[in-house]
Design brief:
Layout lengths: L1 E6 L4 H9 L4 E7 L4 H10 L5 E2 L12 E4 L6 H10 L3 E4 L7 H14 L3 E3 L7 H11 L6 E9 L16 H4 L3 H17 L4 E9 L3 E3 L5 E3 L5 E7 L5 E7 L7 E8 L3 E6 L6 E5 L6 E3 L7 H5 L14 H14 L5 E2 L3
Parallel strand pairs: 1-2, 1-4, 2-3, 4-5, 5-6, 7-12, 8-17
Antiparallel strand pairs: 7-13, 8-11, 9-10, 11-12, 13-14, 14-15, 15-16
The structure holds nicotinamide-adenine-dinucleotide (NAD).
Nicotinamide-adenine-dinucleotide (NAD) binds next to loops.
C-alpha cells in the first residue's frame, strides 16, 4: 500500500482523484495554506482522514509519497525535504522558481534514487502518444517545424482567484508557467530534441486585477506569450500561450515534417482528443475522459522497463530552462 500526503487543495484535488483511482494507493493527509474549510470539503469528498496547515506533517514516516501541489515558490523546499527522507515525490509544474532550484531538485532526485515525477500529464493523452509514435517512427519524415498552442480562459476578465499567479516571486511567471511549460515539455518529448529560445515576447492583459475579496492587485506576470525556438539540427518551433481567451480553450500541437503533417488536439477540460494527419485518410478520435491517470504508471510495480511517458525531474529542469529564457524580458502591458 502506498500512502500519500497531498500538499495543496486547489489542483491538488485532481491528484486526490488520480491517487484514489490507483489500486494499492490512498491519501492520508491533505495540507492547505489557510483555506481550511475548502480543504476539509475536498478531503471529505475523497475520504482523506486528516487535514493540516503544516506541510511538515507530510514528512512523517507513515507517508511514502509526497505530492507538491502548492504555489510554485514552495515546490523546492518541500520536494527537497521529501526526497531527503526517501519518499516518492510528485511535484507540480513548473518544478521551481528558477533553473538553479530546478537543477538542484533534479540532482537531489538523481542522488536519492527514489521515484520523482513532474506533473506534465499531457504526455499521458493517447493523441500525443500517437503523435510521438508517428514522429519517432519516421512517418512524417524529418521534422521541420512544430507549432504548439495552449489557450485557456481561466483568467479572462479582470478578477482573479489566484493572487500568487500574478507575482513572479511566487509563480515564476504567468501563462508561460501555467501553460507554457506543458508545451515546452511536449516539444522536448515529442521530438526528442533540445531546443533553445531564439525570441520571446509577452503581454499583461489586466495590469490591475481584483481579488476575490474585492481588493485591487498589481498584476506583474504575462497573460499571453509567444516563443520562437530552434533545435541544433535546424528544426524550428513556435509556442503560444494565453490565459485570457474568453470562451475558448485549446491545446494543440502540429508537427510538420518533410513527408507529412500531423496535428494532435485535446480539449483541456474533457480530454476529448483527435489526431489529424496528411498521411492518413481520416482523423483518429478519442472520447472525453481519455487522459490516462499518470499515477498508474508512476506507482506501477518496477518491472525493469520504465514507462517512457513518466516525466522525471530532469524533464522538469529541461522545461524550466525554456521557461526562464521565455520570461527573460519583462512583459509589455496591453493598452486600455
Ligand atoms: N498540471 C496542471 O495541469 C496544473 C493545473 C493547475 C495547477 N497546477 C499547479 O499546481 C500548483 C497549485 O496551483 P493551483 O491552481 O492548485 O493553485 P490554488 O491557488 O488553487 O491552490 C493552491 C493550494 O496551495 C495551498 N497552499 C498555499 N500556501 C501553502 C502552504 N504554505 N502550505 C501548504 N499549502 C499551501 C493553498 O491553500 C491551496 O490549497 C501550481 O504549481 C500550479 O502550477 C498544475
Amino acid at each position: 500500500m502506498v500512502r500519500a500526503a497531498v500538499i495543496g487543495a486547489g489542483f491538488g484535488e485532481q491528484h486526490l482523484a488520480w491517487i484514489r483511482d490507483c489500486p494499492g494507493a490512498e491519501t492520508g493527509l491533505l495540507v492547505h495554506g489557510g483555506n481550511r474549510a475548502r480543504a476539509e470539503k475536498v478531503a471529505a469528498a475523497y475520504g482523506v482522514p486528516r487535514v493540516s496547515s503544516d506541510f511538515r506533517e507530510a514528512f512523517e514516516d507513515e507517508f511514502d509519497l509526497v505530492v507538491v501541489a502548492a504555489p510554485v515558490h514552495l515546490h523546492t523546499e518541500i520536494a527537497e525535504e521529501a526526497l531527503r527522507r526517501n519518499k516518492k515525490v510528485v511535484c507540480e509544474k513548473p518544478l521551481a522558481l528558477t533553473v538553479e532550484s530546478a537543477r538542484s531538485l533534479a540532482e537531489a532526485a538523481g542522488e536519492s534514487g527514489t521515484a520523482a515525477m513532474t506533473m506534465f500529464q499531457w504526455r499521458f493523452h493517447p493523441a500525443f502518444g500517437a503523435l510521438r509514435d508517428l514522429v519517432a517512427g519516421g512517418g512524417l519524415g524529418r521534422v521541420v517545424h512544430v507549432d504548439l498552442q495552449f489557450h485557456h480562459d481561466f483568467l479572462a476578465g479582470p478578477s482573479t482567484a489566484f493572487p500568487w499567479r500574478h507575482d513572479r516571486s511566487r509563480a515564476a511567471a504567468g501563462a508561460f508557467a501555467d501553460q507554457g511549460v506543458h508545451l515546452f515539455d511536449l516539444l522536448n518529448w515529442l521530438t526528442g530534441r533540445d531546443h533553445t529560445v531564439a525570441a520571446a515576447a509577452s503581454s499583461v492583459a489586466w495590469p490591475t486585477r481584483t481579488t476575490a475579496a474585492g481588493q485591487p492587485l498589481a498584476a506583474g506576470t504575462e497573460d499571453a506569450g509567444s516563443v520562437l525556438l530552434t533545435s541544433p539540427d535546424g528544426g524550428l518551433a513556435t509556442a503560444s500561450v494565453l490565459r485570457v481567451t474568453s470562451g475558448h480553450r485549446r491545446l494543440r500541437v502540429t508537427v510538420s515534417g518533410t513527408g507529412a503533417v500531423a496535428s494532435a488536439e485535446v480539449c483541456p477540460d474533457t480530454s476529448e482528443g483527435r489526431l489529424d494527419s496528411s498521411a492518413a485518410d481520416r482523423p483518429t478520435r478519442w472520447p472525453a475522459g481519455s487522459l490516462e491517470n499518470p499515477y498508474l504508471s508512476f506507482l506501477a510495480p518496477d518491472t525493469g522497463a520504465a514507462d517512457v511517458r513518466i516525466p522525471d525531474f530532469a524533464a522538469g529542469l529541461a522545461a524550466q530552462r525554456l521557461l526562464e529564457a521565455a520570461v527573460a524580458h519583462p512583459p509589455a502591458v496591453l493598452s486600455e
